[in-house]
Amino acid sequence: MTRGNDTIQECVGRVLQSKTFRNAPSSRRLLKYLSEHSLAGDAGQLKEYTIGVDAFGKPAEYDPRVDSTVRIQVGRLRQKLSEYYRDEDRESAVIVDLPKGGFSLICEPRAADTAVEREPEALAPARPGAWRVAAIGFAVLALVLAGLVLGMFARLRPEPAAAPGWSPELAEFWGPFLNTSRPLLIAVGNPLFIQFENKALYRQLSIENPDEILKSPHFAAIAQALGSRDNRPVHYYAAVGEVNSAFLLGQRLGPHQPNMSVVRSSQLQWQQLADANVLFLGPPRFFGEKLAGLPVSLEITQEATGFRVLHPAAGQPGLFPFRDPEGFFVEDGEACILITHAAGPAGNTEVMTFAGNSTFGRAGAVDALTDARFVKGLVARMRGPSGHIPPYFQVLLRVKYKGGVATETSVLVYREIHRRG
Question: Would you list the domain boundaries of the chain?
Answer without folding.
Answer: 5-123, 134-190+238-419, 193-234
